[in-house]
Amino acid sequence: MQSLAGESVVVIGSGIGGLSTACYLADAGADVRVIEKNEQLGGRASRLEKDGFRFDMGPSWYLMPDVFERFFAEFGRTPSDYYDLEHLDPHYRIFFKDGDRVDVTPDLERTKDVFEEYERGAGEALERYLEKSKENYEVGMEHFVYEDRPRLRDYLDLDVARQARGLSLLGSMQGHVEGYFDHPKLQQIMQYTLVFLGGSPTNTPALYNLMSHVDFNLGVWYPEGGIGAVIDGITDLGRELGVEYETGRPATEIKGRTGGFEVETASGPIPADLVVSNADYAHTEQELLTPERRGYDADYWEDRTYAPSAFLLYLGVEGEVDELAHHTLVLPTDWQDHFDKIFEDPQWPDDPAYYLCVPSETDDTVAPEGHSTLFALVPIAPGLEDTPEIRDEYRDRVLADIAANTGTDLRDRIVLEERFTVSDFANRYNSHDGTALGMAHTLRQTALFRPPHRSKEVDGLYFVGGDTTPGIGMPMCLISGELTADAVLDDHGTARTP
């Protein structure tokens, strides 16, 4: 087993990826210090607490429980050592804007019956689709997610080719789903998970049909206390392993190389043998490194396809909102126009598709008695102008749309309201153009086409998080931490004395 005993490591940023890397490196014997720009740990998985209401500001879906179980097992723990999980039923509710409503539940037979109501034979088609999705998930996770393959030659191997045979590597999700379902609403149900990958049905590779296995077979869960409880669990694990954390200390420059780094901060430099950046990849390269130490120039970052930003309303309201499930989606019957306004012709969407999260439906600790906690999230293009006037107008549009399409009128019941959108993502998280997630999972930005974990120019500098492999989302960032730690150990680890 490799050891990093005697090595000091500074991790810049405390998102899921940074926290994960810190645990692996501390477990290998390194002295690990995590510094965080903001006032709390968790990166985009921050919490907002005010007047008795508590919100998860970022991720709110607990998916792929197997990934979390594997992570904690690496350290001889289980998730239940830190937080409890509840299987949600329904997994989520969908309101279509023509008046239809669909609940997707843990009972697959019930879901097949719902599909049959829309299209004859769709229930059996769903079963076939999920069989393929499960195959892609199991092969993809074992051979292409948990194993980092950063170079083309890593794929020019007979064993890799054999494992890849049968995976849905080519084509778009739109084309793949159309091979199983004709009804546009069924296609939407199978494609909504693309929001978690920051893509659209036409620009996301068909491989990501594996997300339907995640949704329908592995289930949608809620950690008691919200996603913030997961962050607490991972940071508590880190402390047990010896990780030190410091909030309110943004990095301003990375100087030096292996064995002689200095991470400059507003309150003075921090020396380190090695540095891992969990800050936005583009921000790290363009703002924390001098030009000759950057792996990519500004044109590279401008040429990437970015996942959406978001318009978020965090609302504390009087009374119940029984029409809404814990996770609720509101979808136009034709949502291509919304995607076009994100990826093709960036502008605020006129007829938005959006997501409503109501944790108080499951957890009575997130709102005062007699009240509900919820937030509305509208995916929008990164880089949009978001003046106070635009925010006011769009806030009214979203609340009116919720009332019209879910039967829940919140407008006269709001006792707490906070807004968060493009410029807030850019300012709080240093995210490029205010993207909420980072680089989208297009075909030319998947696997080896994402930026690597090792800096291309600076020995001893590493990257972790959604912009590198395996990509966007809490489970992927958790795995990204393992892959980054593996790279550090491969480069700097020594054999441990038995």
UniProtKB/TrEMBL annotation:
The keyword Transmembrane helix does not apply. It is an enzyme of class 1 (oxidoreductase). InterPro entries: Amino_oxidase, Carotenoid/retinoid_OxRdtase, FAD/NAD-bd_sf. It comes from the Archaea. Its EC number is 1.-.-.-. GO terms for molecular function: oxidoreductase activity. Residues 16-489 form the Amine oxidase domain. Pathway: Carotenoid biosynthesis. Keywords: Carotenoid biosynthesis, Oxidoreductase. It holds the Pfam family Amino_oxidase. GO terms for biological process: carotenoid biosynthetic process. Gene3D superfamilies: FAD/NAD(P)-binding domain (3.50.50.60). NCBIfam families: crtI_fam. PANTHER family: PHYTOENE DESATURASE. This is Phytoene desaturase family protein. It comes from Natrinema thermotolerans. The lineage of its organism: Archaea, Methanobacteriati, Methanobacteriota, Stenosarchaea group, Halobacteria. The gene is crtI.
